[in-house]
Amino acid sequence: MATMREIRSRIRTVRNIEKITRAMKLVAAARLRRAQERVNAARPYAERMEQMMRRLSSAAAEVEHPLLEVREEHNVAVVVITSDRGLCGSYNTNVLRAAMVFLRQRQPEHVKLILLGRKGQQYFRRHRYPVVESHPLGTGAALSFADVQPIVRTLRAMFESGEVDAVYVIYQRFQSAMTQVPTVLPLLPLKPPEDPAEGDAGRAVSQDMLFEPGPEELLGRLLPRYVDTQVFRTVAEAIASEHGARMTSMSAATDNAGQMIETLTLSLNRARQAAITKEIAEIVSGAEALK
């Protein structure tokens, strides 16, 4: 059985850990609030723009644009978004597992990776998939379109030059602080809507609406903006998911530390009572011996 000194030392250690995890939880909660506001602002715009672009591409089917070119899929570029730091539960494990499920369907020589987040960089050092670029993700405190521009330029250049035939983004879609969904987003090429109702809506647009400026110029301006918006949205959702996962993980760690302190305190009280009982027994024995 551990001595009282050892138990007290364990209690002090666990109490210090509890303070750290509680502080990390509060920091993650504050960052999550700002990140969630950014997601709530970006998601409706990005989703609406995606619907509009798919309908426009269906309506202007005769327009040729490099970002609309559909080719047989041989080479693909894959953007994998992870975190820079750990202590966020299964956040990185889930997104990397989803990435490997997707990548195992393809040969390494037909895949080009672009990694956001140091955890993804560390993970793919042990795999044969070639990494084109890697960037730290940061906390996303002041995320802007300018932050995703280098990645977007690389993706567009690879797709427009024919180096890759499709672009995918693998990230954690934010639903709540406790729920993040690993998601594979087909980014390029932009394909017409698969839903017949949306396809009919696109054809109705082509029949009932005049393009001003013309379809070529309109899509030429909107398509790059569409790519920027989708990449920005995925990064914003990944950052919010990271902070949510970290807050949940640190909350559970704080609760576990509190339970451990209670258990250790109970053990300390038992050890103290045993020591007192032993001392009383020794005093009684000594008094009896003196009679």
How would you summarize what this structure contains?
This protein has 2 domains: 4-19 and 251-282, Orthogonal Bundle (Helix Hairpins); 23-248, 3-Layer(aba) Sandwich (Pyruvate Kinase, Chain: A, domain 1). Helix content is 62%, strand content 12%.
Average pLDDT, all residues: 84
Assign an overall shape: elongated
Estimate what percentage of residues fall within beta strands.
5-15%
Structural class: alpha/beta
CATH fold descriptor of the largest domain? Pyruvate Kinase, Chain: A, domain 1
- The total count of helices amounts to 6
**Biggest sheet: strands side by side, in what order?**
3-2-1-4-5
Total domains, how many? 2
Largest sheet: 5 strands, mixed
Helix share, percent: 55-70%
Topology pattern, helix = H, strand = E: HEHEHEHEEHH
C-alpha termini separation: 35 Å
Low confidence ranges? 198-207
CATH superfamily of the largest domain: ATP synthase, F1 complex, gamma subunit
Describe this structure in words.
The chain has 291 residues and is an alpha/beta fold. It folds into two domains: 4-19 and 251-282, Helix Hairpins (Orthogonal Bundle); 23-248, 3-Layer(aba) Sandwich (Pyruvate Kinase, Chain: A, domain 1), CATH 3.40.1380. Helix content is 62%, strand content 12%. The protein has helices at residues 4-59, 91-103, 118-124, 145-160, 196-208, 215-290, and strands at 76-81, 111-116, 131-135, 166-174, 180-188. Strands 3-2-1-4-5 form a five-stranded mixed β-sheet, with helices on both faces. Strand 1, helix 2 and strand 2 form a beta-alpha-beta unit. Helix 1 (4-59) runs antiparallel to helix 6. The longest helix is centred in the C-terminal third of the chain and has 76 residues, at 215-290. The two termini are 35 Å apart. Residues 198-207 have low confidence and may be disordered.
